[in-house]
Design goal:
It comes from Kribbella soli. This protein has eleven helices and ten strands. With 315 residues, it is an alpha/beta fold. A six-stranded mixed sheet has the order 6-7-8-3-9-10. A four-stranded antiparallel sheet has the order 2-1-4-5, covered by helices on one side. The longest helix is centred in the middle third of the chain and has 18 residues.
């Protein structure tokens, strides 16, 4: 089972440039969360801060009682063993074949025998559909295969928290869908806590239990998927529905003239909330709720046509 990650008042700057300030949220244990935001809003910086690769200017990140923003190097090393990270480009060692890339964390951080390492590596490579490719070099395979190899490597230490940085970057929609299904199935099987950074609106609308959005140097919103997909908050509504009308422009923000020109324009209706993607078993994951549950509990009428094909298996 994954563990909870609690973020309180987190602020990060580079020199005089504020990246984001006073970010507070909780990644619930065992749930899938997605972090969105326009380019340059510090999503990858947020991931690196969560794992302690970057120190915040102020604030706290609590994981199993340890504040990684203020803990010692030894404590940070111990907490990092809870994490698996899939970097944006896979971060494979180009001179190693896929087997040795996936085995690297086990050889570096454990005293397991080579036979035990082989058993674990092949198990993880089977999970991501790479059995038979273990002798290939990263330069000999597609971008999608490199992503899956990176995911296998992130899994070998059985992490309780998985951070995934733009898994859809450089992938076509079909490969993105396959990779999403792999992550959903992993969450069903082992219940790690996921945080996925993405620009892919379809992924954000169909995969996670919770969605967050960074915008204009702050956390615009974080909460259950249905809350954000039914939200009238202008920046959230614009981004999650890929609309041109709203505060986001070609630069991060539209200027006053652009906003004035849009004044009085009728916003397009919110699109229907889609069914959340199921694991391959067809059953709800342990943290997955029935379609429309959040809306019913909070008296929210979802957009017409929402949850239209809901036939969901029980847990």
């Amino acid at each position: 089972m994954g563990v909870e990650v609690r973020v309180e008042g987190l602020t990060k700057s580079f020199g005089s440039q504020l990246i984001w300030g006073d970010v507070s949220l909780t990644l619930p244990a065992g749930e899938i969360c997605v972090m969105l935001g326009p380019s340059g809003t510090g999503k990858s910086v947020f991931l690196k801060t969560l794992i302690g690769l970057l120190k915040p200017d102020k604030g706290h990140v609590y994981i199993e009682g340890t504040d990684i923003a203020t803990c010692s190097e030894r404590e940070l090393y111990d907490v990092r063993r809870l994490f698996g990270v899939l970097f944006q480009d896979g971060a494979m060692f180009g001179s190693m074949n896929l087997y040795d890339n996936v085995a690297f964390p086990l050889r570096e951080h454990t005293k397991k025998s080579e036979s035990d390492i082989r058993s674990i590596v092949m198990e993880k490579m089977e999970m991501v559909g790479l059995v038979g490719a273990e002798k290939k070099l990263p330069g000999e395979i597609s971008g999608g295969m490199r992503k899956r190899a990176g995911l296998a490597r992130a899994l070998v230490l059985d992490p309780q928290i998985l951070l995934v940085d733009e898994p859809d970057s450089g992938l076509d929609p079909v490969r993105t869908s396959f990779l999403n299904q792999v992550m959903i199935d992993l969450n069903e099987a082992f219940s790690p806590t996921f945080l996925i950074v993405t620009h892919d609106v379809n992924t954000a609308r169909t995969v996670p239990d919770n969605i967050g959005m960074l915008y204009h140097r702050h956390l615009a919103m974080f909460g259950p998927r249905e809350m954000l997909l039914s939200s009238e908050e202008p920046v959230v509504r614009q981004f999650l529905n890929a609309q041109m009308v709203g505060p986001i422009g070609m630069s991060e923000e539209k200027d006053a003239d652009e906003l004035a020109a849009e004044a009085g324009q009728e916003l397009p209706p919110l699109p229907p909330i889609p069914i959340q993607q199921l694991p391959s078993s067809g059953m709800l994951r342990p943290t997955q709720r029935e379609p429309g549950a959040w809306c019913r509990e909070h008296g929210i009428t979802p957009p017409p046509g929402s949850f239209a094909t809901a036939t969901v298996g029980a847990r």
